[in-house]
Amino acid sequence: MSLGTQHSDGPAAPSRVDFGRRVRILRRRRGSVSLRIDLRTAGVCLALTGLGVLVALIALGLGDFRVSVPDVVRALFGASDRAVGMVVVDWRLPRVLLALLLGAALGLSGGIFQSLTRNPLGSPDIVGFNTGAYTGALLVIVFVGGDHYLTAGGALVGGIVTAAAVYLLAFRRGVQGFRLIIVGIAVAAMLGSVNTWLLLRADLQTAMSAAVWGAGSLNGLGWGSVTPVAVLLAVLLPCVAVLGPKLKYLELGDDTARALGLRAEPLRLGLIVVGVALTAVATAAAGPISFVALAAPQVARRLTRTPGVGLLPAALLGAVLLLVSDQLAQHALPADLPVGVVTVSIGGAYLIWLLVKEARRQ
Amino acid sequence: MTTSAPTRPTPSRGSGTPGLARTGGGRGGWFALTLLVLAAVVLLSVAIGAKNIAPHTVLDTLFGHRGSDDDLIVLDVRLPRTVLGLLVGAALGVAGALIQAMTRNPLADPGILGVNAGASFFVVLAVGAFGLTSIWSYIWFAFLGAVLATVAVYLVGSAGRGGGSPVRLTLAGVALSAVLTGIGSGITLLDPAAFDQLRYWKAGSLAGRGYDIVLAVLPFLLAGLAVAVAISRSLNAVALGDELAAGLGVRTTRIRLFGVVAVTLLCGAATAAVGPVAFVGLMVPHVARWLIGPDQRWIIAFSAVLAPVLLLVSDVLGRLVARPGELQVGIVTAVVGAPVLIYLVRRRQASGL
């Protein structure tokens, strides 16, 4: 049975469908393009984008050398003196861009995994990525000595090997969501033990620098890190744009997805690969920044009040969350703490506030 | 082997897999078997260590024939440690079974209500702000932290009408844990001494705990177990979903409140005594469910026996692999338990929640 058989009702019929939410339908006359836009989601996305830009402009001016917002804008367009341009564009802009890009990548990745596992606790950690990355990085830091690129390399290898191992161990005539979750926790718990053990046998200095890496930090990152991150995201985002919209069919269960004409298993593998790759980019650049992937989709879902997890709001929210957290880590706290420590606290506090507010509204 | 098995799982969970032991007699048999295994593990735990003691000497000492030099080791070192392992293991297993039944989330472990995060945070405070360093002083801080954190999680998760859903409770726990962990690790990263203490406490260990600690946590553990047993029947209805449970005459809000109280007592006291041991409470209820089916009463009973087996086996292995030193039990449990869990989840059509 095809879904397209209801056209005989005439062109006006679809707009009378009650979606339970305020929607706007955009379509060209011959029906070649047809979009149903959820007004609240669109509003939230616009607001988040505006907020992100605003915070970024303020952030570029913050620091020992203060720059006002108009001067920041002038500097961005190359119309200010050299000193201001150097501070804003060469020093601060890469870090702000990284916070936005990595935050968006983490938010997207979390959205994909939560939708895939139909579990609000779902995150790339499900396939053990971050735990494995931490193991890889710890091995490098403890046994080789932590050069930044070596650590990132160790983390990538560790994370990817772990994710692949989890997928293969969970594979048995396809990967069922529940089995993936259980195998993922088991492998992550095992590697977590290895991590604890490595931290215990290292001397205190090494253990602390490993813990700083493990919290996730944007300290000391410059344009050299922005370029590879931007290139990788430019490859990954189109993949998300293609695969992401099909998530809602997978959420209905494999059987329904198959009945709707999707090949569930390859699609799921593709989504896992993209989700892990997005996290891998962030982890390699800044360490395993925790909680953005977990909190962003849930916070976004509560803002848009949608029943499922939306990828675009999750990405935008992740970007704003990481940027704000990084600014707080840099300027509001006594010492230069890793941003991961702040994302956890801010994200957690905001999620609590949303939960309380949600309860009041009922 | 696969000839008679259906090649595809049927979409309906309701017809599900009742576990290996379908009949009451089967369950009784399995239960007796696990009790025997537990007894053997207890004996091993007393016998094996830096100095091995022959099993008959152990039994002699335990049943009152004193006089050998090994008495001291058995009675003052190994025995309290083993008893603590038994109690803590049972507590974590039962708490895990409760939390998985209440939240209906396979990812839920007892720590999800914020117990571990709360306990850790208060230990950070004890070390960082008050400069305390002994296990005996941690224990009350840890317990207080665990209780306060769960109370807060319950208040947030069940605010509003209808007492909130399991998902909200889970998310509230994760969120509060995150905040506490974030602040805690911020403090420890700035204070190397606290960091050093914390990395040992967080590994979770049965070593160096005497009878005083056992006695301190015993009342809380017993109270928690009693509450767990009392609500276990109603949990079967709760597992069907809130609406159906209400239809069956179960007051879900009240059951959930009692469940949270039990988990707090059990997991809070266990964590206070030995530090956060994460994997036990997560893994054992899954294994118990695959073994004997979805009846929560049996799951709780089996968890109470299987969890100490895992904990004590891990503790014994930890003493063996790193002689003459030892590995913390919290490190070994996951390494021992995870392969078993993976094997089991692959082996058969393991049921979800």
TrEMBL record, chain A:
The keyword Transport applies. GO terms for cellular component: plasma membrane. It holds the Pfam family FecCD. Signal peptide: none annotated. It is a multi-pass membrane protein. The keyword Nucleotide-binding does not apply. InterPro entries: ABC_BtuC-like (IPR037294), ABC_transptr_permease_BtuC (IPR000522). Keywords: Cell membrane, Membrane, Transmembrane, Transmembrane helix, Transport. One of its GO terms (biological process) is siderophore-iron import into cell. SUPFAM superfamilies: ABC transporter involved in vitamin B12 uptake, BtuC. The chain crosses the membrane at residues 37-60, 96-114, 126-145, 152-171, 177-200, 221-243, 269-296, 308-325, 337-356. Gene3D superfamilies: ABC transporter involved in vitamin B12 uptake, BtuC (1.10.3470.10). Belongs to the binding-protein-dependent transport system permease family. FecCD subfamily. This is Iron-enterobactin transporter permease. It comes from Actinocatenispora comari.
Automatic annotation (TrEMBL), chain B:
It is found in: Cell membrane. Its main location: membrane. One of its GO terms (biological process) is siderophore-iron import into cell. It is a multi-pass membrane protein. One of its GO terms (cellular component) is plasma membrane. GO terms for molecular function: transmembrane transporter activity. This is ABC transporter permease. It comes from Actinocatenispora comari. The lineage of its organism: Bacteria, Bacillati, Actinomycetota, Actinomycetes, Micromonosporales.
